Amino acid sequence: MCLGVLLLLAATIAVSDAQDPPAVPPDLSGTWAEMQLLSEYASLPLVGEVLRTSTTILRVTIEQTGSVLAQRWTYCATEIDNGSAIASTVIPDAFLVSLGEAAADATLDASHSPARFVQPWTTEVRGARLNDPERDSLPTRADDARVVDQDGDGKPGLTVRVSALGIISGEVYVVQRVRTRLVGTLVLLDRIEGLVEWSTEQVTLGATSFLFLSDLPSRPDPIAGNSSFVIQRVDPSWECADILANRDRIFGR
User: Residue 70: left if φ>0, alpha if ψ -120 to 50, beta else—which one?
Assistant: First the structure.
């Protein structure tokens, strides 16, 4: 075999053995709007079990380093559809403002096509300060030293407004632990869509009516596709008011 053929054969083998360069994820740094839809079955006073949907809208900033997305977000709105016209739950603005800014890292894996987005399990405790937010039990009494008046209204924990049958209304004072995990794909360079795994715990510390004092059971909807999220890039100058004013155009819902 001549030298030229040997050199060509060696070059061919070297090329075939070479590994493809790692995929480089697109840069997602910037300002984003996020919508989470969480579906659950809940028992309500005087109503019974309903299929309830919570819609939460966030303003998110992302700083990307390689495949790691350092996210920081604030809450713009939370709306609850109790699945029944005779029961309503309202999350006051003071509740949302008191949550402040939260943070969590996510990853963007560009070796998948489309790129895969994963935000690992994140835990938020509301209305209380726990040494171990993941494992400590939630307070069950308003005089527990771990309870804080987070929304500053003079009531323990956080205040939620509720009504039933259109004639009974009041306030409920609660502490909560919310856990979420987001898994989705980069469907467009400026848009991520996927599903939310989640769980929630809530303890009622007090209420203005005895009808609302019970801790009512709830459970996430077993149909995984009914709890979802969308994250869409928006103008970096936009605040929550801008996102809410343009929500239909942003999320396409």
Answer: beta
Tokens of 1: 């075999």
- Please give the helix or strand (H or E) that residue 15 lies within, else none: helix 3-17
Q: How far is CA 203 from CA 10, 38, 138, 177, 227, in A?
A: 70, 19, 7, 9, 23
Of 58, 77, 52, give the one whose Cα is nearest residue 217: 52
Helix (H, G, I), strand (E, B) or coil at 9: helix
Backbone angles phi, psi at 250, to 5 degrees: -70, -50
Phi, psi of 172 (to 5 degrees): -125, 135
pLDDT on residue 164: 79
* Residue-by-residue DSSP string for 165-223: TTTEEEEEEEEEEEEEEEEEEEEETTEEEEEEEEEEEEEEEEESSGGG-S---EEE-S-
pLDDT score at 36: 98
Domains of the chain: 29-251 (2.40.160.20)
- Phi and psi at residue 224, in whole multiples of 5°? -55, -35
Which residue is associated with the tokens 């999220």? 229
pLDDT at 14 over 80: no
Least confident of 7-16, 28-37, 117-126, 224-233: 7-16
95 vs 207: CA distance, rounded Å = 16
**Residue 155 buriedness (CB in 10 A; 0-12 / 13-18 / 19+):** buried
User: What are the angstrom distances between the C-alpha of 232 and each of 32, 176, 179, 250?
Assistant: 5, 28, 22, 7
